[in-house]
């Protein structure tokens, strides 16, 4: 384990050759988000990738922010792996957040600096796995809901449900697995979205499919999977991510948890190639397997047929 950690420390700070198409310029990203959220499109669900596992979603008239890793380091302030591309939209430019959904407490999913900077702590609702709610209460969030797997919260036209996944939790060396981890479903009139958080592959996704499926869109991690002997227990590889989508009955798949920060040994831009190939091999049309640009906004697939649209 020690040689692996040493290798990852070195890799986390190496220069990454980022393709030109990978990140939208921030002014373009913000303009695209504003157009998609305009009154003209108020009946459409919207998804924006901020990088890694951070998304903005508009469903049921509410704005959801998932796993806000939005500043530089995936670790305590000034330490840990440093992201090699910025968040798709700056914290100061985010729309008003109604629901903050946190899958678990790892630093690349729960960025304390970003949490400190988020406005609206007195009005947004935090949904977090059991044992993690006090983290937010202690930091000034007024409405916090600790959720066990299969518990749900309904706010007007939006229903949020915590779902099982295969992972673990730790914020320091003394709190391993003292809080739960979770995936989520978000359901509104526009459709149903699955957010996988961090997870390995396992039979639990067939259970989710039978109990909760189908889904119109699934946000599934496709990165941080090598070396396989170490990472298989906590992170799906791209082929397993496609299988998760199949198991839960998802019509459209979105690859996440890649292209932002070096956490493991696979080449940084290998995951999307394998994900697209696996999707084709398992019968998905190319339009139903999305590799989004950081900062890109798309409409959710229409609930009853039709195709997704890029803004």
Automatic annotation (TrEMBL):
Transmembrane segments: none annotated. Residues 63-258 form the Metallo-beta-lactamase domain. It comes from the Bacteria. It holds the Pfam family Lactamase_B_2. Keywords: Hydrolase. InterPro entries: Metallo-B-lactamas (IPR001279), NAPE-PLD (IPR024884), RibonucZ/Hydroxyglut_hydro (IPR036866). GO terms for molecular function: N-acylphosphatidylethanolamine-specific phospholipase D activity; zinc ion binding. The keyword Lipid metabolism does not apply. One of its GO terms (cellular component) is cytoplasm. This is Hydrolase. It comes from Pyruvatibacter mobilis.
């Amino acid at each position: 384990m020690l040689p692996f950690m040493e290798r990852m420390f070195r890799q986390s700070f190496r220069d990454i050759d980022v393709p030109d198409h990978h990140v939208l310029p921030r002014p373009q990203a913000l303009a695209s988000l504003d157009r998609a959220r305009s009154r003209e499109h108020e009946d459409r669900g919207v998804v924006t990738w901020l990088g890694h596992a951070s998304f903005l979603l508009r469903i049921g008239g509410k704005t959801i922010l998932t796993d806000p890793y939005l500043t530089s380091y995936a670790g305590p302030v000034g330490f840990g792996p440093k992201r090699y591309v910025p968040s798709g939209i700056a914290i100061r430019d985010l729309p008003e957040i109604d629901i903050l959904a946190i899958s678990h407490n790892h630093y690349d999913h729960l960025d304390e600096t970003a949490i400190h900077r988020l406005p609206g702590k007195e009005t947004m609702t935090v949904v977090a796995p059991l044992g993690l709610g006090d983290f937010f209460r202690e930091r000034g969030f007024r409405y916090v809901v600790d959720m066990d797997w299969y518990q749900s919260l309904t706010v007007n036209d939006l229903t949020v449900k915590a779902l099982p996944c295969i992972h673990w939790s730790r914020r320091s060396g003394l709190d391993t697995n003292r809080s739960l981890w979770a995936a989520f479903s978000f359901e509104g009139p526009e459709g149903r979205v699955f957010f996988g958080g961090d997870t390995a592959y396992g039979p639990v996704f067939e259970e989710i499919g039978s109990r909760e499926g189908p889904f119109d869109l699934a946000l599934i991690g496709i990165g941080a999977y090598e070396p396989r002997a170490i990472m298989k227990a906590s992170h799906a590889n791209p082929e397993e991510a496609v299988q998760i989508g199949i198991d839960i009955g998802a019509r459209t798949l979105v690859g996440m948890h890649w292209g932002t920060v070096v956490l493991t040994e696979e080449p940084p831009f290998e995951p999307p190639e394998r994900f697209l190939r696996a999707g084709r091999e398992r019968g998905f049309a190319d339009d139903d397997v999305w590799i989004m640009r950081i900062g890109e906004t798309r409409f959710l697939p229409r609930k009853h047929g039709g195709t997704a649209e890029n803004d």
